TrEMBL record:
This is Anaphase-promoting complex subunit 4. It comes from the Eukaryota. The keyword Secreted does not apply. Keywords: Cell cycle, Cell division, Mitosis, Ubl conjugation pathway.
């Protein structure tokens, strides 16, 4: 299974460390888009109603960190500390703006994550009903064997533009019609739920992501405690296990339990036990085991008091906050926050706190009995070494129970770390638990029969069920609103798709005023840029640009004009490697020299062109009813490099081209495996490039 790993850009660029991993995709991720709500700074009618304060900081200290695993060296712990600081910055920022990460994979799945860490939706482009109108007939299509090529969420989070490569067929059919084929298709998805419920989603995601971080602290704490105790018990059994072999060597018909019971009650010491205490174990060996158990007990108390218990307490409080939100049904039920599921999680969190309290008591008792046992064995060794007698004075008989338990592998601490172990509860305690149900106690009366690890697993499962409801509800509300076939090709499957890019620009005065009636809050229009495969239009070295697919969609405005498009032909001496929409209606093209050989490796150019200088044609005026861009061949525009801003690169480059509009830079990779960073807003003779 391919896991989807990503890093928070602002932090990963500083140290390159993995902050958080999310298993959202089962296939390779092809594209991502992280969009922040641009309306967050604008006042809303609901702002005074939904003003929300995270009250956790008022009642609790800072959340505990993940405990270190035993055996880590100092360098590893430094890495862990830095990553934990970054994770706290990700999940503990209640004042950050609402933002969503969209990611698409090669199997056609698109995942949505709030703040990039809390999954809130997932759709499969192959299962969507793609409704559109062709030949004046409303038809429903679907994409078969589709992969996601590019995704772009609008600035107001209401629409998602998806470029998907697949086979477009009428819904319910297994193969394409005669006039349809495999190709690139532009799909418009309605994601208005992110805008209409952004305040509610913000609150739920903030609490849920913090709870998930605390659950990770609990999981790691239990794992660390289990390993520390297991290491100490392995040493204990290693030292005391040799007594069984000595009993066999001496031909005795007894067990280690019998030998220590005899010693405990003043009987004569057998040769096997005498040899074990004086030679095999010895005073030094006993002290080593005693120190190991004592140190393990101290470490368990530290993890318990500083990590495990505080994490469960804070998580319980945050779950209670979600419980309160779930009771506001008018606001939160429509987005899938179910009160009954949250109530179940609340009860499981309370049960886990009781399990932690029980674990603390059992640990104290076991450590006390261990210390008494070690002191008694040490006393026996000293007596046997100093006196010729084979008898030892009897001592407290309660040690018998402890030692029999441990020699029979009935470790009460180990049992609490086992998931499938069942704890016996006396009848009186069961009756008391049943009486507490009448007074508002836990409805699950068998929780005392479960272990600490089992209770944690049940809490984790209940959390998954509770958080799955918003995930499922939001996913069901993301629907297709429009479809535009871009181009078709005859070869399938395609090993490598031509480059594409999607962006939103501010409207210019010369742009059709019909755009302005579609997005009154923010005068933005979408641009979709793509390289046309040579076999699609019967042309070579051509790129296409579509303007106004979302703003002129019938979903946005039923009276809006049709989207406009233009085809741009690149001179034959150049080959388009990659492209990217930039800013201010600009497009960056990455071109290689078309004719190069081993003796002459070739050169490259980075060209900036203005879309405002191009003549766009309305797609509604074209005769072709399906792939309308086919009819643009006659009006194709030749690109002249001298009309654009050019950067010369003295060697060939490869994909990808990375462009940052906010920073004004572009990054390309040369064939020599060098990363080249260029400042786009400066002239080539005014600033030197950074390599």
């Amino acid at each position: 299974m391919v896991q989807f790993f990503y890093m928070m850009w602002s932090l990963s660029l500083q140290n390159g460390r993995l902050l958080k991993s999310i298993k959202s995709h089962d296939a390779a991720v092809v594209c991502m888009n992280w969009e922040e709500d641009v309306l967050a700074t604008m006042p809303s009618d609901d702002d005074h109603i939904l003003t929300y304060e995270d009250r956790t900081v008022r009642f609790f200290p800072p959340a505990p960190r993940i405990p270190r695993m035993p055996g880590l060296v100092s360098g590893d712990t430094d890495l862990m500390d830095d990553s934990e600081d970054a994770i706290h910055d990700l999940s503990g920022a209640p004042c950050q703006r609402f933002n969503i990460l969209c990611s698409g994979d090669k199997n056609g799945f698109i995942c949505f994550s709030i703040f990039g860490i809390f999954p809130v939706g997932k759709i499969n482009i192959q299962q969507l009903h793609l409704c559109t109108k062709f030949s004046r007939k409303e038809t429903t299509y679907q994409l078969l064997n589709a992969s996601i090529n590019k995704v772009s969420l609008s600035k107001n989070l209401c629409q998602l533009v998806v470029l998907s490569f697949g086979e477009l067929v009428e819904f319910g059919k297994s193969s394409c019609c005669d006039d349809l084929s495999v190709g690139l298709h532009c799909v418009l998805l309605d994601t208005s739920i992110f805008q209409s419920r952004k305040n509610e989603l913000h609150q739920v995601a903030q609490q849920a992501s913090s709870i998930e971080d605390l659950i990770e602290v609990v999981r790691t704490s239990i794992s660390v405690m289990s390993k520390q105790w297991s290491d100490a018990m392995n040493l204990f059994h290693e030292k005391f296990g040799s007594l069984s072999a000595l009993i066999v060597d001496h031909g005795l018909d007894s067990s280690p339990q019998d030998e220590f019971l005899s010693l405990l009650f003043g009987a004569r010491t057998s040769p096997a036990l005498h040899q074990f205490l004086v030679s095999s174990l010895g005073e030094a060996g006993l002290k080593r085991v005693s120190r190991a158990v004592d140190n393990a007990g101290k470490e368990l108390r530290v993890v318990l008091n500083e990590h495990l218990q505080p994490a469960v307490e804070i998580a319980g409080f945050r779950i209670g906050e979600l419980r309160g939100l779930s009771r506001w049904r008018a606001r939160f039920q429509s987005m899938g926050l179910e009160e009954k599921l949250i109530d179940n999680v609340t009860e499981k969190a309370g049960m886990l706190l009781i399990q932690i309290e029980r674990f603390s008591r059992v640990l104290a008792i076991v450590l006390y009995q261990f210390q008494n046992f070690f002191n008694w064995v040490l006393k026996c060794i000293k007596i046997l070494l100093s006196e010729p007698t084979d008898q030892v004075q009897p001592t407290n008989s309660e040690l018998v129970v402890l030692f029999i338990k441990f020699l029979l592998d009935n470790d009460p601490i180990k049992e609490l770390f086992e998931v499938n172990h069942r704890i016996d509860v006396d009848m009186e305690t069961k009756q008391q638990v049943e009486q507490l149900v009448v007074l508002g106690g836990f409805t699950d009366m068998k929780f005392l029969e479960r272990t600490l690890a089992c209770e944690f697993n049940q809490l984790e499962q209940c959390l998954k069920e509770a958080f799955l409801m918003p995930f499922t509800t939001i996913s069901a509300k993301i629907l297709c609103r429009d479809l535009l076939p871009v181009y078709s090709i005859s070869t399938s499957p395609v090993s490598q798709l031509p480059p594409t890019s999607i962006s939103y620009y501010k409207l210019q005065d010369e742009v059709n005023c019909a755009f302005q009636s579609c997005m009154p809050l923010h005068s933005l229009v979408d641009y979709i840029c793509f390289k046309v495969p040579d076999e699609s239009f019967g042309l070579t070295n051509c790129i296409g640009i579509i303007r106004g697919f979302t703003s002129n969609s019938r979903f946005i405005n039923k009276e809006a004009a049709s989207p406009a498009a233009v085809l741009l032909r690149i001179p034959d001496e150049y080959e388009c490697v990659d492209l990217s929409l930039y800013k201010d209606n600009q497009i960056i093209l990455l071109l290689n020299e078309a004719f190069s050989n081993s003796e002459s490796p070739g050169k490259s150019w980075m060209v900036m062109i203005q879309t405002g200088d191009l003549c766009f044609l309305s797609l509604s005026n074209l005769e072709h009813d399906f792939y309308k861009l086919h009819d643009l061949k006659a009006s194709m525009v030749d690109m002249h490099l001298e009309n654009g801003k050019i950067r010369f690169i003295p060697h060939c480059v490869t994909k990808p081209l990375a462009v940052s509009a906010s920073r004004g830079v572009a990054c390309v990779f040369s064939s020599r495996r060098h990363a080249l960073v260029y400042i786009l807003d400066e002239d080539e003779d005014e600033v030197s490039d950074m390599e």
